[in-house]
Structure formats: C-alpha cells, structure tokens
Amino acid sequence: MSAAAVGASQAARDEASGHASPACAHCGLPVPSGLIESGAERQFCCNGCRSVWGVLHSCGLEQYYRVRASAADSELVPAATTGRRYDEFDDPTFQQLYVRPVQGGLFSTEFFLQGVHCAACVWLVEKLPVVAAGVVESLLDLPKSLVRITWDPMRIRTSAIARTLDSLGYPPHPARDVRTRNLRRVDERRFLGRIAVAGACTGNAMLLALALYSGSVSGGLSAELQTFFRWLSMAIGLLALAWPGSLFFRGAWAALRTRTPHLDLPIAIGLGVGAIAGVINTVFSLGEIYFDSLTVLVFLLLVGRWIQYRQQRGAAAGDRVAAGTISLSGRLEIITQAAGADTRVGKLMELVEHCARARPPIVRFTDRIAGWFVVAAVALSLVTLAYWLQRQPARAADNAAALLIVTCPCALGLATPLAVTVAIGRGARRRILIKGGDALEKLAVPGTIVLDKTGTITTGRTALVRWEGPEHVKPLVAALERSVNHPIARAFVDAFPNSAGLVAEEIEQQLGGGVRGLVGGHRVVIGSPAYLQSADVVIPPELRASLDSILAAGLTPVCVAVDGALAACAGLGDRVREDAPVAIARLGRLGWKVRVLSGDHPDVVAAAARRIAIPVEHAVGGATPEAKLAEIEQLVRTSPVVMVGDGVNDAAALTAATVGIAVHGGAEASLAAADVYLNRPGLAGIVELIHAARGMMRMIRIALVTSLLYNAFAASLAVTGLISPLIAAILMPISSFTVIGLAFGQRSFPRSPISARGNIINGGREPTSTPDARAAQCP
Amino acid sequence: MSVIYILLPVALFIAAVAVGAFIWAGRRGEFDGLETPAVRMLFDDDPPEPPAREPKRPD
Lengths: 779, 59
Description:
The complex is a heterodimer.
Chain A: H1 3-16, H2 47-58, H3 63-70, H4 92-98, E1 100-102, E2 106-113, H5 119-126, H6 128-131, E3 135-141, E4 146-151, H7 158-167, E5 172-174, H8 178-218, H9 223-242, H10 246-258, H11 264-283, H12 291-317, H13 339-357, H14 361-391, H15 393-406, H16 410-429, E6 432-434, H17 437-443, E7 448-451, H18 453-457, E8 458-468, H19 473-481, H20 487-495, E9 504-510, E10 514-519, E11 522-527, H21 529-534, H22 541-552, E12 556-562, E13 565-576, H23 580-589, E14 593-597, H24 602-611, E15 619-620, H25 625-636, E16 641-645, H26 651-656, E17 659-663, H27 668-673, E18 676-678, H28 684-719, H29 725-744, H30 771-777
Helix pairs in contact in A: 3-5, 8-9, 8-12, 9-11, 9-12, 10-11, 11-15, 12-16, 14-15, 14-16, 15-28, 15-29, 16-28, 16-29, 17-28, 19-20, 28-29
Chain B: H1 4-27, H2 36-40
C-alpha cells in the first residue's frame, strides 16, 4: 500500500468513528489530536517530520515523495532527527581515526546511519551533494546502513555534513572498525577471485571431459586428440588446485603442523591423491583422469564456504530489519561517540561481537567429533589402500580416494554451525537478537523463567482497567479528556473512542489534580478524589465501596462527577497484556515454571500475578537489585534459569541467570548483560524464542543422525569397491546439500519478518487502526 | 579437425581474459554490495527543474 493510501484509509476510519485526524505532511501518519495546529496549512506529527519536510522543499527534493510512493518496501515512519551539532566530528582525533584522504584532495569517511529503511532512503541519502554543497559523492549500502561520503574539505566541514544528514532524518555515527572492515573487504574480493578462477577451470575441464567421454562412447577419438585433451585437462586441473585449491592444502598443512584435525585434511588428501593419479595417468598414457571431478570439488567447496561466510556475517550484523528501528536493533557494529561514552559503548560492542563469534557448546562438541572423524577416515582409507593393493592393485587408489571423497562429516562441520547461524538470522528478522548460539542451546532445556513485571507481563502504560459507572457517562468523559495531553487522559480516550460528536468547552485543567469543563450542557469534573472534593463533590457511600475496591486492586482511582454529583469511578493502572495468560500457559506446557520478580509494589505485583494465574508465592514484589540477584543465584543452583528484565536494576540478575533476556525499551546496562534482546514488547517473543531453540536443537540432532547413517553406508560402499571416485564425488555433495537443506528447513523461527510496527496482538502483522496502534505510531 | 589445436588454446586465452576482467572488477569494489544497486535502478533521472509549485503530497 502506498503511503498515501494508508493515510487515506486511516482518515476514512477516523471519519467513521466521529473525528478527523489529519495526516502528517511528511510521513503520512495521523497526527495525534494534541499536536494539531488549528489553522495551519499542513500538519506534522513531530518535529522530525517538520524539519525534514522543510529541508526537502528548500532543496527542491520533493521527488522524494514520488520515489517513496513507488518503492514497494517503504514503510510509514516518522523522521528521526536529533538536532545535534556533531562538532566533535571536526576534532583532529576524530579526523585521524575515521577520515581518510583520497585522490583529488578530497576526504572520505563512512558513517552508520540511523533511520535507513527503504529504497527512498537510498535515493535521498545519495542526493546529499544536492543538499550539502561540497559533498562530491554519497553512496549508501542499504542492508548495512553504511554510507560512504567523499567531500572537498575546503568547501564543507565534517560536522556540517553530519548535521545535514541528521536534518534529513538520518543521524550519523562513525563506522567502527574501518581497518578491520577494509581488510575483510580485501579478503572477500580475493576469495571471489578464487571462485571465479575455480569456476572457469571447472567449466573448461568439464567440457574437455565431455569430449573425452563422447569420444570413448561414439567409437574412438584419435590418439593425438586424446592426448591433447588429457594434457589440457591436466593443465587446467593443476591450475585449479594450485591457485583456488591451495586454500585446502594450506589448511591441511596447518592442521598437520598443529596436530588439530581439520576438515581440510581429507579434502586435501582426496584432491592430492586424485591429482597424482591423474598426472601419472596423463604422462604415461595409462588409465582415467579425474581433473573434472577435482575442479568441481574445489569450485563447489569454495562456493559453499562463501555462502556460509555471508550467512554468518549477515546474521551477526543483523538482517535488514524493517522500518525505523534504531541502531540497537541488530546492527552490532555500532557507534562510539566522543570521549567518555567511548570506552563504555565500545566495550559493550566488543563484548557483543565476541559473544557472537564464541562457539556454542554444541558446535564445539561437533568440531571435536569432526576431528576424530577425520582421523578415522584417513586411517580407514589407508587400510583400504593396503587391503586392495594385495587383492587388486589397479583398484586400490580408486577405492581409497573414493572413501576419502565420499565420507563427509557435513553435519558436523557444516550443518551444525549453519543451523545455529540460520536460527540467529531468522530470529533477527523476528526482532529477537541473540548474541550467541549457546543461548539458543540452553533455552532448549526447560527450567524456570523469572519475569520482571512492567513491560513484559503488563503494557507498561497507564490504561483504564476498571470502570464502575453507567454507559452514558463515557462519551462525556471522552469528549473532555480528548483535549487534555496527559497519560490518564489518553487512557480514557483509548478506552472510549466514541465521544458522540460532543465537544468540551470552558476547559480548566489542574496539574496533578484533574480537569473540568462543559460538555453537551453538563458540568463535568474528572480527577483524583481529592480534586473532586475541592470541587465540592460528595462521594456517596455506594460509590465509596467501589473506590475502596479500586484502591485494594492497586489501581489509581479517578472519579467522574456530572453536574455536581459523583457519577462514576475508574481504576487506572498498568494493564496486563491480552496475550500474557495464554503465553504463560504455553510456557507451562513446554515444561517451564514461571515466576515474577519485580521492583514494583507488592500489592500491584500480586494483582498482576492473579490475573495471569501465577501462584502468589511465586510472585515477589518490592525486590531490590540485590534481592533479585540473590533470588536468581538461589534458583540457578537447582535448574536452568531464564531471567527476563528491562530495567537497570535487572543487569546483575541477567548476568547471573543461565540465559538473560533483555526486553524492548530496556536500559543499556541490561542490554549489555543479556544474552538475548527482544525488540518486541510482550511475552509472545519469549514463547517464540523457546520454540525456536527446541526446533534448532532437534534439527541439529536429525542432521547428525542423517550424516552418521550416510557415512556408514557410503564408507562401506567405498571400502568394498562398489563405487568409483566419480560416483563418490556425486554422492558427497548430495549428502552435503541434504544436510544443509535440513539446517535451513529447521522449524525454529517463523520465516516472516516482523516490521517495526507489528505488535503482538496481531501476531506481528501491520497494525490496524486501533487506538493502541495510533498512539504508538508517533513518538 | 587439426584446427582444434589452435582453437582450444585461443578459447582458453579468451576465458582467461574474462576471468581477469572479473577479478579486476572485483578489486575495484564492483561486487562489494549486491543489494543496493538493485534498488538504485528504481530511481528515475532527475526531471527538468519544475517551476515553483505547491509541494506534492504522497498520493
């Protein structure tokens, strides 16, 4: 849906429900009623949108809106500007670290940009030379949100460039680790070159092999031609082994030298044996040559490594999470700002990257097994060689080579790490950021989950929980509260969307007390009991009982008086999420025990626990950070503990737990301490995470068993001389692809990505025009 | 058929040139980011400067 179409349908729905909500001139989202400027020609939902609109129009870049409308993947997001000065970008230390001179007297740097989410952003960012005079070139890498800017230092300063980017809605941050990234880039290019050479050699070797095969089938190739083709094949084959294939030989040599068995070892031996046999056969005009198989092997193995490498890099750096998510939602290479924060944030990110690279226990386990497997395969091939040399010497080399080629610890070396990487990557698309595969592994075994209250079980926002009063008072309340900008007012407006076309007049607000006004001819007073008393409203005894029960439930009481008489009492509080009871029941079915450990008032915690069917002895309120830590340490002794928290006071507990999950909106300290970051509010993400962990582990086990069976079967075929190296070279990739297919086919996370505005109520789909969604859209 | 003794080496030489071109392009960064160029082709060339007009709303 184009931006305007969504806006139009929003407006239509708003019309139907009795009020018109104008659309923001920049992002197209509805403008909250509190921010409408009467009489203004155009409305904006926030200052960010207003300023970006202004910049676009003053620079003649209105085409942006057309580009955005035609870009299929663009989402409606308010513009994020910060208004920072970025003066530190001109500092010589900064320049030395992040800016490098390029030819022509120009400077170049890379920034990580917040707020990049669609094709239109690419268009806009690359139009930077139009907006900022002196910028020569601006190239954005969309999935990484990295822009490379080249500029003339005589005409514009670095800070001015940063300010311009910020004013367009893309706050910039210096890109970390430029040196590492450059080195990695050079490595990648070189690897791609190897693949190209291997591919070219493979194609040509296969053509020559085809000629040789057809010759032998159709009744003979002349001896000279045969010799010619064979020598050419050998040249091509040896080139493939010497240049792209040298990777495997060097790896095998390193493995031998350090005595750590490595998958490169059997590959190198297989390649070597095949090459030697082929060379001997060519030079002395003996038997078969295998250069087509060898080159294919080298090519496909390199391609496989390339894919695996890009998978891992993509998962670690975060898939392109849609729409408006900020740097924290998955780009693990983030920012270091000036001096003070530098150490802390830098260390945080190092820690995160370290964890991402750290290998989970299951992978270490399979690596060790792979080592033994390699030794066993080599030993077995030597035995095979010795055995067949005594029986039929002509077949000995073939069988030994076939054994080495066909045995493949693919599940061990490839599929297990791949399964972990795929799970993490898919999790990132579901806005669940997992720092390392070991977290997933630990989550597959049920234990105890400890929940913080606010934000996980409850919505963390003030909402109407109880209403004791007649229906006809509701529109009056809605009309009066509509014009008030206060969380309590918003709670009423969300709860009573229909104000029956009434308009409030003579509105008087008292901060901290309440509001009064004239609605449809009635005098309406809404506020705390004390406020109503000061307005000379008497509370009759029957409503006094309601008031007491509201207080007992731990809610904030708000009273409504119409024409001097108390008409209704409302209880406001933090509403338990609709999906919370279901989610907790599901966790129970998966074998997890659920507890609540919160710093909130014990009564409030007890009330929330009752609503989600948690026994009251497992719901603890009023817990200090030390108390939380102690409780977690106590629980960890008996079973795995998963701690879910969002506040600063959860950081220590998160570290002590077996797996720590930091939730949406969490403080930075808990983000650093946690193993998983859930960028979605509510409990649905936790259930999904646990399902995913089990799915991943199940798939790893299946892959291991499959690989074991395949190897046993194939090895016995090779040892008994039933397959040739050619058949082996076909079987092995088939088994590898099968096991890799299993790794991708894992039933862990659902495939569909979750956009920034998907919420748990609609399962992560685009939100409909509910009051919740409208309120959530504009910051 | 003896022409193949010349043809094959020539063909292989041409293949080598192609691979060389690929490696050269790779070194210059052509294959660094494969996703963004796909998006760039959506952009039209800038139309001639329009006269100052009412800003266009998305529609």
